[in-house]
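FORM 12-B: Structure-to-Sequence Request
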């Protein structure tokens, strides 16, 4: 007769848990230790002290929002409380005409000869930058170059002996769920290590034109700005740049600029001391369902050209407002934010092919890229005050929840419409219950075209809208300019 052993419930559960632990994949438990990796890379991570001498600006706490840089001095809250108490006691602000303001951040060495990388916002307009190493050594740094658009700066120090350096890895290979290690200088405490995973990729937090951040839950706090985000091979896959936090401390949502985004910029800064990005000379906007249908795209895709810079390369390549760029240099443009990143990363002067959709058909254009920085310099020199003749009394008509008035001298003055806007009808009021209000149309904007036909006066606008309705169209596609002349497309339903 077989002997039967009856296990107690507690013993049964203990045995079951042991079985599950044996069967569970090793990766599910995460790395057993990050000590070896930390020891391997930590000496290449540095603290950055930046000092600026100038007029006093009383400190104030930053608003909690996506993209808040985790930099700055660790005692801002104490200063804020101090000034609040003085105001409450009626003492006002202390007089301090000049002072030294300082910020603390992080950085890392990429070349043993003394090349250090950090965020641009860490050094900002500092008069003096000091790099502090893990052994306590302090070296004055020279700023080789910096770029605000991707928030990166390249520094040079002159060490007595070669420094410990780290290498960039391929950030495109980083997968959601991969383990990462952040090393930096949180709250000025010195070298600190935190670990987490890649939470998401290609995050757009509206901090700049080339947003494609790596999101991580590795703790990133004030002072971590400019520090490296490592993969498990000890390669830098990102630069810790921003946090999302209501309190200023880590809540598990941090953002790192991908290595593949910053490397070309760093190379340009090292070589030229400045960036040299490609430039098309177009203003673009997103394509939504209504616009895609109206322009015969078949699906939501591409970047809609909302305007052309008269001095830019696109002007000479037969690119027009209303074109949708769906391919650039052989690469598909899935959404509008894809285009600036591709153009900026393409060498100045290169001949590239663009595929645009015009009138529902794809057309190919060849364009020689200009240099973005040259275009920006010209644009900053241009721009005049708005002025326009014509004393016609504005006559108004309404359609689609909008009141249209003729462009006149009085309306130019009232809405500060510059002379870059030469024609069209002025929106003088918007029905708050209308689709136009939901699309954020505002008084003072000017409707230039409806379904790619120029509009000269309010009667033209109403007549065109009626023609579209009678023809069975579902939407009207408006080209709208703001007071400065910048244009964008808005699709409004006709029913």
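FORM 12-B RESPONSE
SEQUENCE OUT:
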């Amino acid at each position: 007769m077989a002997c039967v052993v009856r296990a107690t419930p507690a013993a049964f559960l203990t045995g079951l848990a042991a079985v599950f632990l044996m069967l569970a994949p090793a990766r599910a438990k995460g790395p057993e230790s990050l000590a070896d990796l930390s020891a391997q890379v930590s000496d290449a991570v540095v603290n950055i002290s930046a000092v600026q001498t100038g007029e006093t600006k009383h400190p104030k706490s930053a608003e909690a929002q996506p993209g808040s840089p985790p930099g700055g001095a660790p005692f801002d809250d104490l200063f804020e409380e101090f000034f609040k108490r003085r105001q409450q006691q009626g003492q006002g602000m202390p007089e301090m005409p000049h002072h030294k303001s300082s910020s603390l951040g992080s950085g890392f060495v990429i070349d043993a000869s003394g090349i250090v990388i950090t965020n641009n916002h860490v050094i900002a307009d500092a008069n003096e930058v000091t790099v502090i190493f893990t052994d306590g050594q302090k070296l004055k740094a020279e700023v080789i170059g910096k770029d605000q658009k991707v928030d990166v700066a390249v520094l040079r120090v002159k060490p007595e002996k070669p420094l410990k350096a780290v290498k960039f890895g391929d950030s495109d290979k980083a997968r959601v769920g991969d383990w990462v290690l952040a090393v930096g200088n949180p709250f000025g405490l010195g070298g600190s290590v935190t670990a987490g995973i890649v939470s998401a990729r290609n995050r757009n937090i509206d901090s700049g034109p080339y947003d494609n951040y790596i999101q991580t839950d590795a703790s990133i706090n004030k002072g971590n700005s400019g520090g490296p985000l490592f993969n498990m091979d000890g390669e830098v896959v990102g630069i810790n740049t921003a946090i999302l936090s209501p309190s200023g401390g880590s809540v598990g949502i941090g953002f790192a600029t991908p290595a593949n985004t910053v490397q070309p910029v760093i190379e340009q800064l090292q070589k030229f001391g400045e960036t040299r990005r490609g430039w098309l000379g177009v203003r673009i906007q997103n394509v939504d369902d209504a616009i895609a249908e109206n322009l015969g795209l078949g699906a939501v895709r591409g970047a809609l050209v909302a305007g052309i810079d008269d001095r830019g390369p696109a002007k000479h390549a037969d690119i027009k407002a209303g074109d949708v760029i769906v391919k650039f240099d052989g690469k598909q443009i899935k959404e509008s934010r894809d285009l600036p990143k591709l153009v900026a990363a393409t060498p100045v002067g290169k001949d590239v092919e663009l595929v645009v959709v015009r009138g529902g058909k794809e057309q190919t254009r060849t364009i020689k890229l200009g240099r973005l920085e040259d275009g920006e310099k010209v644009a900053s020199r241009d721009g005049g005050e708005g002025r326009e003749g014509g004393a016609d009394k504005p006559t108004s008509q309404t359609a689609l929840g909008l009141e249209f008035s003729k462009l006149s001298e009085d309306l130019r003055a009232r809405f500060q419409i510059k002379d870059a806007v030469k024609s069209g009808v002025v929106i003088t009021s918007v029905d708050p219950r209308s689709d136009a209000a939901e699309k954020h149309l505002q008084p003072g904007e000017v409707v230039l075209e409806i379904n790619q036909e120029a509009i000269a006066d309010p009667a033209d606008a109403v007549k065109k809208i009626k023609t579209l309705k009678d023809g069975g169209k579902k939407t009207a596609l408006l080209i709208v300019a703001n007071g400065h002349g910048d244009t964008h497309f808005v699709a409004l339903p006709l029913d």
